[in-house]
Amino acid sequence: MDEKIDLHENCSCKSCQQLSDAEKKLHLEISENSRREFFKNAGKLGLGIGIGGGLISPLASFALNTEESIYKASSIEKSNTGRNGKTQVLTLLHTADIHSQLEIHDEFFIEHNKPVYKKRGGFAVLKTMINDLRNKNPLNTLVIDGGDCFQGSGIAALTEGRAIVPLMNNIGYDIMLPGNWEVVYGKEMMLKDMFAYNGVKVCANMFHDTKDEQNGELIFPPYFIKYIAGIKIGFIGYNDPLTPRRQSPAYSYGIQFAFPKKNLRRYIQLLKEYEKCDMVFLLTHMGLAQQVGLADMEEAKGVDYILGADTHERIRKPIQGAYAKVTEPGAFGSFISKLDIVIENGNVKEHNYQLLDVDPLHYKEDEEMKMLVKKTKEPFEKKLNRIIGKTKTPLVRYYVIETPMDNFITDAIMWKFKPDIALSNGFRFSENRYG
Known about the structure:
Elements: H1 14-17, H2 21-45, E1 51-52, E2 55-56, H3 74-77, H4 80-83, E3 87-95, E4 105-111, E5 114-120, H5 123-135, E6 141-145, H6 154-159, H7 165-171, E7 175-176, H8 187-196, E8 200-201, E9 206-208, E10 223-228, E11 231-239, H9 243-246, E12 255-257, H10 264-274, E13 279-285, H11 288-295, E14 305-307, E15 319-320, E16 325-327, E17 335-344, E18 347-357, H12 367-377, H13 381-384, H14 404-417
Parallel strand pairs: 3-6, 6-7, 7-8, 11-13, 13-14, 14-16
Antiparallel strand pairs: 1-2, 3-17, 4-5, 9-12, 10-11, 15-16, 17-18
């Protein structure tokens, strides 16, 4: 697999820098779906859409000033832009690396240079919190997941991810990205699980192997376009191109990965110059080092935000790169990143970003989700509740150099197999391939 990973990574040939006929056709299909959705919603809302010369007129007048359609974060409320009655707010709620953590759990924090554990997460709390945030701005909120969702727990492993999909659908995600661990059950199972999600799927760098009948075609749509809050926005998805190297290549057998350099510039050109998107977001699962590197690449010019994932980083303030800002929303369903973008007459005026704790003390568990989780767990309770050992040391993997969980793994290897050296991969920290 390694020799296939570099698909024209640094290529500047014409065929790699211009839009192919196949890409244009795919673009038109995706774009037409977005237009149909927009006009359908516009009709429901009674919006007048002017048509002139066969072209859609600018969407600057698409503004709803009802209380239900406008949510102003506290910092925005104090601004002149937020008070003048001419604004809408686009809200993006982003989770990632949930890793099938269904229940409220002990989450690791550092306070006063000491480890502290606080109750966070749980699908029932996560659903309540997302619903609360979404209901404050129902017409202009998108809920996004950045991957690594249906791997990481016993239930996920025993069902090859199937048990997690209905729970995510119950929350109501709008856009989904596959992460590096979505391949863990093999290509066929990844396809079944990912396409069982109700939300839109995006990924521009995962291809069917050239040896199968799909002959190197993209597995998922590369991008998604939406009219929302009076502007047009586009999302381009990228999974970690190093996936076959980071974990067993058997997991991703039949899948080829490419670096964003292969096609990012072309997709940005398409969204900015042809579709006239007001904002472009990259939805990535590549790790913080690669994502910051990507934000500094000239190929990312035209991107507003890289909504990242993979290294479980809790980004409290967006990292400003040369061409884009980078965020990550933590992990395990313990955090939600919330990006509010103020729009006035079709123009972006302000940004407000927050990383919010999924705190059961502030949000009551959703009863429907609580029952769904209970039913999901029931067939496996006996197997998963069997005690196989005890430890007084929290087995975390949050430290960079040496962690208790890695020590546990290497000690177990030494005990069982008696090797000279035992190694454990620092799984959350990838190299920056962009220098």
